[in-house]
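Lab notes, practical 5.
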Amino acid sequence: MTLDTRAAAARAIAGVLAGGSLNNLLPAALETVSSRDRGLLQQLCYGTLRLYPRLQPQVQALLAKPLRSKDSDIEALLLLGLYQLDDTRIPDHAAVAATVAATKALKKDWARGLCNAVLRRFLRERASLAEQLSPAAQAAHPQWLYDTLQQDWPQHAGAILSANNEQPPMVLRVNAQQLSREHYLQRLAEAGIEARAGDLAPEAIYLDTATDVNLLPGFAEGQASVQDEAAQLAAVLLAPAASERVLDACAAPGGKACHLLEREPGALLTAMDIDSTRLQRVHDNLQRLQLKANVITGNAAEPPEALLTERFHRILVDAPCSASGVIRRHPDIKLLRRPHDIAALAAQQGAILQGLWPLLAPGGTLLYVTCSVLEAENSGVIQDFLQRTEDAELLPLSVGIARAAGSQILPTSHGPDGLFFSLLRRRIAGAP
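Output from the prediction step:
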């Protein structure tokens, strides 16, 4: 039995309001609706969460009294109702009627009149409600993140805020071991899929319209993978050579590890992650792409004993972070992330660098990567590490915007996500 699409979306959004991850909630929600409605369900969930900081204060202003905690699904229904009226092409009358009707599927008929009244009042008062919003709410960002972006990126904050609220492009990575980017672009054209080459990464292709991967030519055979263009730069910048020992220390789900091997199949790669469940994705990706790596479970901050005698020529640290550079792909970050999380993440990132540094061979390089645009997680972490690590030196990078201790790619419309890169080398004892 299928569920009303808006009711299913409301339940998923309510799960996020309760602290859950949309990545975990959405797959189950998609199974409850008909196949033809899955696109709409995703649009409602992603769109509502992208604009949540703007929608939530307006919903509160329209309610005579706050809803009870057990009625978070009705709050979510009102949020997605406002989203439809304010940011989609769905006709107003259809959006109101369908959203009100969803109260029955949620088994809360008492909320029918409430939803109808709130949504119709919004249509009458939307201009005055918008005027009452703070600048942060108008930009659809939590106040703490809005303030931090203004502080860290005074000249770029507006563009970052705008990009965060847009639907991200679908980007492919061509497997250079099987064919060239030009050849794959030709294959896409023959399949009627419009696409263009990326500007930063040599294997990147942007699709004009998101497409089911099963419809991509050669996907099952490993000719292409889905990966943002900025993320593809990690393998380019680390640049391992044949026979070099390489450690991807936070490897799941395996996109960067596989790209390293696609660019240099002769590298001796160890892919490690603290989450043994997520490591299955690494195995799956390696198998589809017909690549081989040593896959192990381990905490990068406290490497497993099996690695303590190893010396790697290259280490990739795709560090856990706020994900503030990929908010457009994970809009629930706006609800789930808190300002105090940043200091805790920076401490974790520093501990990971400290734990891995002894595994790096003298003369070897370590690439630190985050999908964050916040200085506290990026240059701040690297500068602290350099101050306490005598044999670490910073190497220049020629990508993105130069920062105090690395380079930043900012999220852009129809372009890459926001990633930070810092390349460190371990000095050889006695070398100048």
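Observations recorded by the TA: The chain is about 45% helix and 15% strand. The two ends are 71 Å apart (CA to CA).
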